[in-house]
Design the sequence.
């Protein structure tokens, strides 16, 4: 496929994860996903700063969050995610555009990260769908790469 043109429908964004690099499979039944980066600032204010704070960038961090619907028979859903969290496994994650398919769209860009599940919650309201939400804290470098 060629690079996606125009505004991207958010339903095209998928999260893939696995316990080894290049073994990632799509997380099933996801309804929302996001990736977030932040940069800590270090204070370099001195007496010659004229009473104004001066800063420089320090450590960077990233996290990935998703929400989805619970299915007992999902092959890569809540039940597998909780197993990864209990085991303390490092996960390899792709946050990518699949278009209308289930494989990454060649020519677009994706985030390729690794990290650990730091939060996993299952919710079940009265007469509602059973859902789940998860947060992965990224360890190491955030790689933004062209899909080939």
Sequence:
């Amino acid at each position: 496929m060629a690079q996606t043109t125009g505004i991207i429908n958010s339903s095209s964004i998928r999260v893939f994860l696995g316990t080894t690099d290049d073994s990632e499979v799509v997380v099933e039944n996801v309804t929302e996903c996001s990736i977030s980066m932040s940069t800590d600032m270090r204070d370099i204010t001195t007496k010659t700063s004229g009473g104004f704070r001066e800063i420089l960038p320090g450590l960077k961090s990233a996290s990935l969050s998703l929400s989805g619907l619970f299915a007992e028979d999902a092959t890569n859903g809540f039940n597998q995610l909780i197993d990864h969290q209990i085991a303390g496994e490092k996960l390899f994650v792709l946050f990518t555009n699949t278009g209308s398919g289930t494989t990454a769209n060649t020519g677009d860009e994706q985030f390729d990260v690794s990290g650990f599940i730091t939060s996993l919650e299952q919710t079940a309201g009265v007469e509602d769908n059973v859902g789940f939400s998860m947060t992965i804290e990224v360890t190491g470098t955030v790689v933004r790469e062209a899909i080939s």
